[in-house]
Amino acid sequence: MKPKRSDELTKQEKENLSSYFSDVDADVFVISNLNPEVVGAALARYSRAPTGLKETVVREFLNPDGTPNEVKGSELIDRVVNKYGDESVAELAVAPLCIENVSNLMTKIIEDCRIGGSPIEESTRYVLYDVKRDEQWRYVRPESIMKSGLAEAYIQTMDFLFETYAGLVEPMQNFFRKKLPASAFKIEVERDNGVVLVGADELENDNEQRAHRLAYGFTMRSAACDIIRCILPASTKANMGLVGNGRFYSGLITKLLSQELDEGWLLAENIRKALDTQIPTFIRRASKNDYLAENQNRIREFSIALFKDIPIQTVPEVVLIEDRVEDYTINLLANIIFPYVQHSTMQIRNIVRSLPEEKRNEILSTVIGKRRTKRDRPPRAFEYGYPINFDVVTGFAEYRDLQRHRMLTQQRQDMNVSLGYSVPEEIEEMGQGEVVQECFERAEWLHSDLIRAGLVREAQYAPLFNHFIRWNMGMNLRELGHLTELRSQKAGHPKYRRTVQVMAKLYMDRHPEMEPILRFVDYNDYDQGITRAEQEARTARKSLATGVFDDMD
Fold first, then answer.
1. Which of 83, 132, 321, 362 has minimal Cβ neighbours within 10 Å of its Cβ?
2. Is residue 131 part of a domain?
3. Residue ranges making up the domain that contains 39
4. What is the pLDDT of residues 86-143, one digit of tens each?
């Protein structure tokens, strides 16, 4: 008869574990200094091992001398995930990953993978793009474009955009310095009578002067960034960080290999190469999904053909969409088509409603295609059914901020120039309207040239941050409250603040009884002020209290 495993750890076992557990005697503890695959394998044993994790680790995953038996950990994960298909186990290993010098377009594709990964990216609201690196401006040069006859036109257009941007940096900061001179800028400081706002002539020591200088400089820079980013293209490079689990990364690699941009294919292999040093077993099965790739092409071709002769109707920036239970199938089919055209949800629904039944069935059969395994999953459109749905049209810049929300379903349309663009009022006020207008015109010429050359997917690199993009957001009321209360706060960008304010107002007009859920939406208009000034005043006080000053840049 096999003896029962003991919960009691020997003195030697505790000593072997001490390097890996924050407290070998506690019921709550942190694991460290172990390979992520060993950690994942040990956690996977929770569902089957009769003892706790410490006992499992020391008896199954450590060698007699206390060193990790990483081979055994990888073997267990390989058996459970790659042979038995228990994908939930793939969520037990986590790895931090840094991705640098990818396009802003690609960051959106990455961040569309919502579950299991937490992203952070370089912000065009705070970081200036006015300096070349390795004698080149910071934009990607996709191989497919560089090998086409449009390489020179692409480079000339992008160089002009970045040169114009760089030339606007100092004039735009001067514009805001006149609006809010350093002598009028105040920071919060601790005084005998509590926290007070003080100006430049009331600072008492070197640290306060330093805090004031840094806060003012950052305020002016971020105010300028908010405006001049309007002419950055979607090809602008960005750095981003991800913390994700094995299932997330496996899905991300598969997605990148299954889409149509060569930037994504190269990135997928670089991600795999990096993660092979941390969690190789968890991503071993990641590969191009032919079903996904084929279906994207089929439904895109079908949708474009169906809508090619239908003009795009003009609609408000934000539309709260009315759903009726009896229209479920019509609405679902419209959701399927939405990402592949430039029309609004309501216009698509009306067109779908007018189609004969056999044509509607063709939409469904086209998007489902031939599923070969349970991993051949239908697209996100099939998540349709949320009680609250919005169609939103804003600049790509604002979309980048609002896309980050995970507790909802978003579908976006391709980056395009057909919906128009906006030029910030400040650009006109400082007399730079003509050169900025030329930036939009050049970007649109390039976009058209790329499409005519058959580089339809690559044409998405050309539109600028203030070119409009349309997307759809489905959510429940709890998420609507979270989204609108968070994104309407004073420090937010004025444009996305207005977007969520309209969302809240449209919903409240229809359901005024739900006001307590949206109680903290800020409906104020701060356009006449410099919105970062108040936040930086508070940040200065924190710097003075801790002695830590953010002057790295």
1. 83
2. no
3. 11-92
4. 677 778 889 999 999 999 999 999 999 888 899 999 989 889 999 999 999 999 999 9
